[in-house]
């Protein structure tokens, strides 16, 4: 009798231990699945965020309003270009002909003893006819010297601007259109363009043709005072 009771207790103990072990394994497995799901969710979110950063740019022709010379230019100096034509950004914002692109000299290195010089500019906002100012992303696709009397649509050597510009666009313009000055740019860079010359100072005259890729940062405009940082040194 006692032997049968002992065997029964032993069987119940083994069954109980197996149940506890099964429960423990299940409890251990649950966090593993949860962590895997969380990591997948984070990865997906990061991928979507990265894709949302791709610029949707449109092309437009413009010209410089003021001359820039590396012999006298300073970092922070105001740079202004005027659109030669109207364009609508991918976000639906219309930039009329005559819209001003506001920017600044980001970096300048003048020539010493006929040595090399370089000039980087960045356009950061557009001033509409109604006075509203909106932040923009702008990349110079090509540049060419204007005529002696400034710019004229009929004389623009750059041709029609492209309707759409790839966010991976990378430009290496050799000397020629800007005489002895080369130009490089990339949509992925912060600066709109960098100009370089091997021997002598760079001179971008008022009326210099610019073909740009442009996108509005958003539909919300900035206060006019937001341009002040781009107007210092002008």
Binned, the helix content reads 10-25%
Structural class: alpha+beta
Ends apart, CA distance between termini: 107 Å
- The run of helices and strands is HEEEEEEEEEEEEEH
Q: Which term fits the overall shape?
A: globular
Walk me through the structure.
The protein has 234 residues and is an alpha+beta fold. It has two helices and 13 strands. It has helices at residues 2-52, 228-231; strands at 58-64, 68-69, 78-83, 87-88, 94-95, 100-109, 117-127, 133-144, 170-173, 181-186, 193-197, 203-204, 209-216. A six-stranded antiparallel beta barrel has the order 1-3-6-7-8-13. A two-stranded antiparallel ribbon has the order 2-12. Strands 4-5 form a two-stranded antiparallel sheet. Strand 7 and strand 8 form a beta hairpin. The longest helix is centred in the N-terminal third of the chain and has 51 residues, at 2-52. It is globular, with a radius of gyration of 31 Å. 32% of the residues are buried.
Q: What's the short story on this structure?
A:
The chain has 234 residues and is an alpha+beta fold. The protein is built from two helices and 13 strands.
Task: Summarize the SSE layout with pairings.
Elements: H1 2-52, E1 58-64, E2 68-69, E3 78-83, E4 87-88, E5 94-95, E6 100-109, E7 117-127, E8 133-144, E9 170-173, E10 181-186, E11 193-197, E12 203-204, E13 209-216, H2 228-231
């Amino acid at each position: 009798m006692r032997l049968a009771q002992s065997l029964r207790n032993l069987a119940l103990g083994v069954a109980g231990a197996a149940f506890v072990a099964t429960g423990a394994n299940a409890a251990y497995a649950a966090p593993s699945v949860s962590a895997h799901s969380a990591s997948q969710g984070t990865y997906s979110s990061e991928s979507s965020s990265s894709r949302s950063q791709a610029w949707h740019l449109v092309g437009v022709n413009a010209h410089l309003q003021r001359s820039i010379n590396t012999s006298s230019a300073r970092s922070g100096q105001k740079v202004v270009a005027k659109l030669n034509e109207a364009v609508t950004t991918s976000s639906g914002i219309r930039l009329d002909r005559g819209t001003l692109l506001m920017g600044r000299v980001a970096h300048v290195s003048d020539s010493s003893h006929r040595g090399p010089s370089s000039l980087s500019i960045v356009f950061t906002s557009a001033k509409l006819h109604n006075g509203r100012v909106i932040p923009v992303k702008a990349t110079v696709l090509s540049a060419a010297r204007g005529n002696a009397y400034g710019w004229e649509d009929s004389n623009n050597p750059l041709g029609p601007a492209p309707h759409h510009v790839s966010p991976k666009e990378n430009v290496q313009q050799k000397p020629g259109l800007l005489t002895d000055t080369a130009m490089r740019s990339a949509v992925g860079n912060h600066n709109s363009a960098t100009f370089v010359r091997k021997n002598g100072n760079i001179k971008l005259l008022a009326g210099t043709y610019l073909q740009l890729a442009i996108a509005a940062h958003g539909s919300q405009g900035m206060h006019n005072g937001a341009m002040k940082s781009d107007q210092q040194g002008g």
